[in-house]
Design brief:
heterodimer; A: alpha/beta; Rossmann fold; 8-stranded mixed sheet; 5-stranded antiparallel sheet; 12 helices; globular; B: alpha/beta; 4-stranded antiparallel sheet; 21% strand; transport (chain B); ATP binding (chain B); AAA+_ATPase (chain B)
């Protein structure tokens, strides 16, 4: 049984489908990377898992289950208990996701109190333990600090401490290092992966940094305009991409253009609410698009292990199949 | 050298010992503290070349950019533009010359006035600095918009109607309106997605070729820098720690900080992930910088000398083949770093 299973999850805001029938699984101890440009629905899909989509957003799914339990069917109260303890989330911007009016200690203890309870002394001891675990020096004195007294890297460590406070089995990290410097990013990612291995958590790592996913993820999902266009083992997807979008994303990275004067930029931008094309959503930007692509939306092809949503998936040489 | 043409002078911008020190009040009874945001930066920038400035946030790279465009006046040092010292000239000459050094900011959502139409935004530099008639200004704005890949019909639109990539194109067009020789680009692509980032980088390189522009490219993204730069300068806490050509720095990095930056940058291909030098801790507070080498607290090669003596920027005496590759490190000077041990 998978830790998290989604089948045909969609999130709609009125007529706009921000997430369009996506399905994936996360196993225990697995790192799943979700990549895509802004506006591809990465964050909205993770908020849907957490149950954080408010009106007018609407979440529908054939299946949305955590550890075999149906998240949609269970009462709201029970679901609230699950989120925050068994399923935890780390948000992108640590500076704004901590409440500036309360001390760090208060905010960590709040999470512990809600989900586990205990005496004041125990809770404080546990909070110190957590801060030590995420590598914050002098944790006792840090408990009384307010968020503005911490640097970006420190705040993100506090966020991680809050997220792992109740020993979650699934951790959703939405761009956890985007706001940080590279040296700090390396520290935070090392910390996350170390914790993930030690606790055998499932980790969903949402990012637009392809190289980061290539380094740490076991499996990767590439999203475009709310749909999953390709998924598979990370090493395979990055070495032999089957979807033209994945290929184009990789080619537009400066490091793939060594010796070349210009980068292979994908023209255009992700379609928004009002300019969704007919047929395959990538067709206006895709160099291989045919009339067939412009009329009809492609189906998912391949095994569950390696899927691609394209009429003419690329072969190992990176050319479209005839 | 009074009147020099760009055509016959390769050297456009020359900085010598540029410093920017801020005085910070710490309370009524405490003495004022001095933050050395930029502390002695020197470089030469030639026509059509790109100098990249790399470092973590708080290392002074943006302050350097602001000094080059004279948004801020340096507290010390010299800034030569085509042989004239910009800092000692009269106000009116300064105003004329600073038109030729323009800046592009990081966040295209914040750097464009939301109440003004694109046309107005683009023409503003012309209104202030030239006496071109209205029709000519409009013609120039439209031709510049076409150069950066926007359409003429965008002239009457407002910034909110554009995507991030398009806004950065507008910001670039605005920077080019006065036919500058130097563009200081402060993290121009870090707010953009990879595919759009590639479009903007290509555009910047095309424009560089077309107009013979020189770029000072401020960035924290080493893979972008490796692609676009001719020369690279790595800064740490206001000081340059390593400086050289792009090949020297990426093929043969020497300073422990540069090594750490390179190994912290995620790499797509497994072959490139060789070094594993992870840094402990964070950038120290510039209010209270460490003694000696500012990097010694995070450096695994540090010894007693690093703690007391500030290293100077100089050539590596063990590697004479490297012309112009400057490093400020005692460990490199004493040949204490064995890279073979660091390769994972």
């Amino acid at each position: 049984m998978s830790l998290l299973q989604l089948d045909n999850l969609s999130v709609t805001f009125g007529k706009f489908r921000a997430v369009d029938n996506i399905s994936y699984k996360v196993e225990e101890g697995e790192v799943l990377g979700i990549v895509g440009e802004s506006g591809s629905g990465k964050s909205v899909s993770s908020l849907a898992i957490m149950g954080l989509i408010d009106f007018p957003g609407k979440v529908t799914a054939d299946q949305l289950s955590f550890d075999g339990k149906d998240l949609q069917a269970m009462p709201e109260k029970q679901r609230r208990k699950l989120t925050g303890s068994d399923i935890a989330m780390i948000f992108q911007d640590p500076m704004t996701s901590l409440n500036p009016c309360f001390t760090v200690g208060y905010q960590i203890i709040e999470a512990l109190k809600t989900h586990q309870g205990g005496s004041k002394k125990e809770l404080k001891k546990r909070a110190v333990e957590l801060l030590t675990q995420v590598g914050i020096p002098a944790p006792e004195s840090r408990l009384d600090n307010y968020p503005h007294q911490l640097s970006g890297g420190m705040s993100q460590r506090v966020m991680i401490a809050m997220a792992i406070a109740c020993n979650p089995r699934l951790l959703v990290a939405d761009e956890p290092t985007t706001a940080l410097d590279v040296t700090i990013q390396a520290q935070i990612i090392d910390l996350l992966i170390e914790l993930q291995r030690k606790k055998q958590m499932g980790l969903v790592l949402i990012t637009h940094d392809l190289a980061l996913v290539a380094e740490v993820a076991h499996r990767v999902i590439v999203m475009y305009a709310g749909q999953i266009v390709e998924s598979g083992p990370a090493a395979e997807v990055f070495s032999t991409p089957k979807h033209p979008y994945t290929q184009a994303l990789l080619a537009s990275l400066p490091e793939s253009a060594s010796g070349k004067a210009r980068l292979d930029a994908l023209p255009g931008v992700v379609p928004g609410q009002y300019d969704r094309p007919q047929g395959c959503l990538l067709s206006p930007r895709c160099p291989y698009a045919t009339d067939h692509c412009r009329k009809e939306e492609p189906e998912n092809q391949g095994s569950l292990n390696r899927q691609v949503k394209c009429h003419t998936p690329l072969d190992t040489q990176g050319r479209p199949a005839a | 050298m009074s009147k020099t043409n760009v055509a016959d002078s390769a050297l456009i911008l020359k900085a010598e010992g540029l410093k920017q020190h801020y005085h910070v009040k710490q309370g009524m009874f405490k003495p004022e503290a001095v933050v050395k945001a930029v502390d002695g930066v020197s470089f030469n920038l030639e026509k059509g070349k790109t100098l990249a400035v790399v470092g973590e946030s708080g290392c002074g790279k943006s302050t350097l950019g602001r000094m080059l465009t004279m948004i801020e006046t340096p507290t010390d040092g010299q800034l030569g533009y085509l042989g004239q010292n910009l800092l000692t000239l009269s106000k009116s000459t300064q105003t004329k010359l600073r038109q030729k050094i323009q800046i592009i900011f990081q966040n295209p959502y914040g750097s464009l006035n939301p109440r003004k139409k694109i046309g107005t935004i683009l023409e503003e530099p012309l209104v202030i600095n030239t006496d071109l008639p209205k029709a000519d200004r409009k013609a120039k704005a439209i031709s510049m918009m076409e150069k950066v890949g926007l359409k003429a019909e965008h002239y009457d639109r407002y910034p909110h109607m554009f995507s991030g990539g398009q806004r950065q194109r507008i910001a670039i067009a605005r920077g080019l309106m006065l036919d500058p020789h130097v563009i200081v680009a402060d993290e121009p692509v870090s707010a953009l997605d990879v595919s759009v980032q590639a479009q903007v980088l290509n555009l910047m390189m095309d424009l560089q070729e077309e107009f013979g522009l020189s770029y000072v490219f401020i960035s924290h993204d080493l893979s972008v820098v490796e692609h676009i730069a001719d020369d690279v300068m790595v800064m740490y806490l206001g000081k340059v720690v390593e400086q050289g050509t792009c090949e020297q720095l990426f093929d043969n990095p020497k300073h422990p900080y540069t090594l750490a930056l390179l190994s912290s940058t995620p790499q797509l291909s497994p072959e490139k992930r060789r070094l594993r030098i992870k840094l402990e801790g964070e950038l120290p507070s510039p209010l209270n910088p460490p003694s000696g080498c500012a990097f010694h607290g995070r450096c695994r090669f540090a010894n007693e000398r690093c703690k007391s003596e500030t290293p100077v920027l100089k050539l590596d005496s063990y590697d004479e083949s490297e012309q112009g590759h400057l490093i400020a490190c005692h460990a490199v000077e004493e040949n204490r770093i064995n890279l073979a041990e660091e390769v994972a």
